[in-house]
Each structure stands twice: as structure tokens, then as C-alpha cells.
Amino acid sequence: MGRNNVENWRVQKCAKNCAVCGREFEDKEQLFSKLIFDEGQYVRQDLCSACWDKKDPGLSSWKTTFIVPPPPEEEAVKKENAESLLRRLMAKENEEDLAAIFILTVMLERKKILVERDVRKGEDGQRLRIYEHKKTNESFMVLDPELKLDELESVQEQVVALLSGHIPEDDAADIPLKNRKVRSVRRPRLWKRRRYSIRWCAP
Questions:
Q1: Which residues contact 85 (CB under 8 A, 6 or more apart)?
Q2: Residues sharing a CB contact under 8 Å with residue 156, sequence separation 6 or more, in sequence order
Q3: What percent of the chain has pLDDT over 90?
Q4: Does the structure show a pLDDT above 70 at 167?
Q5: How far is CA 106 from CA 16, 83, 154, 190, in A?
Q6: Phi, psi dihedrals of residue 141, rounded to the nearest 5°
Q7: pLDDT tens, position by position, 30-81
Q8: Cβ(191)–Cβ(36) under 8 Å?
Q9: Cβ–Cβ < 8 Å for 193, 145
Q10: Which site among 11, 150, 162, 194 is 20 to 30 Å from 26 CA-CA?
């Protein structure tokens, strides 16, 4: 898992049907998700409890809850926030955005929008962190960029610039400030490493 995996960064929605029996999931049904590698890409599969085989967990697996997607919102002009910026950068798939994506991912984890499901280590030693969006069940795959603490200031400034100089109050609290001491960061260990990628569970 290296920088040449940029093409794997995308978002996958949670499937509406079981990957094995094809039964449609019910709202708030407990199901199992697993990550496999197929034809050069990471693919998420979702299975009902009856079809789940714990002897075949794939590269990674976790238990989750199916949530019926809400109706699409009416289009409206919205201010850029951490989540919308993260999605926009992921869609661009530019390697230059890696550090900013990492910072935004950690911010969303702190805000309890994303939850870390698993961590995988590749043959090259890089860590792949697997997150899930708590409301939409989207899965986000993030390669650990191994950011050093002395790199945070420039990345923080980049994120501010990408947000057009406007940072919502809730988001600002989760960006490390250049004059803030390391011990004041809620989870400093998260800033020392990572890199990233996203995914949805297939429709």
C-alpha cells in the first residue's frame, strides 16, 4: 500500500442487499461488513447475519447497523465545512492533498462523525485505517501519512486556506494551532501518523 494506491480512494455506500443471499436489509438491522481486494481495488461487501461466515472475514471485517438512507436534501448553497471539504478532496484524488485529507479525517473522528473500525498493515509497512461514517455507513480508507508534529503548522494553514479562511467554530476547535502546545491536542498520537482513502458500501 503506497502512494500509487491513490486510485483506490473513493466512497462506497452501504449495500441495500446482502452480498450472498440478495435479501434487502431492514432499517436498523445488524449486519456484517468486510473488506476484500478484487481486481486491484479494495471492495466492501455487506452480509446479513445468516450469511456471515466468521471463517471468511476477508482483509478486515466489522459489525455495523444498516440505516435506511434519508431522502436527498434540496440543493442549497452551503458553507464549506470539514466533511464537505474532505469529500471534495477525496473526489479529486490528488496526491498533493494527502496531508489535508488526513487532518480533516482526524477532525471528523474527534467530532464522532467517523469511527475507526480497523487498522491494516501492508507489506511495505504502511498502515491502512478503515473508518465508517456513523450516520451514512460509508466506509473511508485512509493511508497513514506518518505526519510529524513539526509538519502540522503548514498543513493547518493549508486546511484554513481550503476552507476559504472560514472555519466553523466546531471545526476550528479540532485543528492544531501553531502556537498550541502538543499536550493540548486531544489525541496527539493521531497526528504522528496516517495517510488516507475513502469508500461507500455499494448500492
A1: 104, 159, 162, 163
A2: 103, 175, 176, 177, 178
A3: 24
A4: no
A5: 28, 11, 16, 7
A6: -105, 120
A7: 999 998 888 878 889 999 999 999 999 998 899 999 988 777 665 444 556 8
A8: no
A9: yes
A10: 11
